[in-house]
Amino acid sequence: MNTDTARSDDSGDAGDGPEYTFDDVSVVMGTYNEEAAIGTVLDDIERVTDGRAEVVCVDGSSDRTPEIAREKGAQVVEQEPQGYGVAVREALLTPDRPVVVTTDCDDTYPMDQLPEFLDWINRGYDVVSGDRLYWGAEAMPDLNRWGNYAFAALTSLLMGELVHDTTTGMRAYRRDVIETIRWTENTGLSAELLIRPQMRGYDVREIPIEYDERAGETKLDPFAGGAAIAKSIVKVCLDER
Ligand SMILES: Nc1nc2c(ncn2[C@@H]2O[C@H](COP(=O)(O)OP(=O)(O)O)[C@@H](O)[C@H]2O)c(=O)[nH]1
Ligand SMILES: [Mg+2]
């Protein structure tokens, strides 16, 4: 995996694949009572992609989140709330555009960096992963930040390769990566979505991203969720060996 921006083989484009634009991109997310954030998140995507990226929300809300999403032009797939990974897996598999970007619907992730994610896909990468910890993630609660450092260390140890942020919610994927691999995890899906492609030899790249304070309440219990993620990391790494 590679995070430095000055690698010589990154300078040109990949040459072979097509050059994707936002007409080829779906931005997808699970949404669960995100009334406080969804308007801003969808407006940001619209502004940054000139309204060209398609948006898919897999929604389990009991508040006005799905109405707001539809008003703003997103495709809403209704689903009983069953956890992060169940929603995000459905969200990843719903669109058919060649590039899929995941985000949380909580206004923490920088939609302004969508062009950078697309750029790295166009340079030939299969997975582009937003590294929240690179700039320190001061807006993240301390417990989450230390947990995320620990998850990255555990993953690096088990994979035998350095990874800086295993549990980030903002990534771009080529569609064939999503469709080729069978996904098994729920709370740990974000880690699985990085580990399996990396251990199967896909070209994975981390890029530094900004991380903002959350709008609205977190849907993840830090202790139960953290334990589930650690378990997924161990299971998936052993599985891929
Ligand atoms: N549809 C659906 N979305 C969910 C569920 N659990 C979490 N989400 C969404 O997944 C994203 C990540 O959850 P979040 O609370 O931000 O987790 P955190 O970033 O770890 O604090 C958010 O957009 C949530 O609304 C669920 O059970 N169903
Ligand atoms: Mg979040």
UniProtKB/TrEMBL annotation:
Residues 1-10 have a biased composition (Basic and acidic residues). Residues 1-21 are annotated as: Disordered. CDD domains: DPM_DPG-synthase_like (cd04179). The keyword Transferase applies. Residues 26-181 form the Glycosyltransferase 2-like domain. Keywords: Glycosyltransferase, Transferase. GO terms for molecular function: glycosyltransferase activity. It is an enzyme of class 2 (transferase). Its EC number is 2.4.1.-. It comes from the Archaea. The keyword Glycosyltransferase applies. NCBIfam families: DPhHxTase_Halo (NF041391). This is Dolichyl-phosphate hexose transferase.
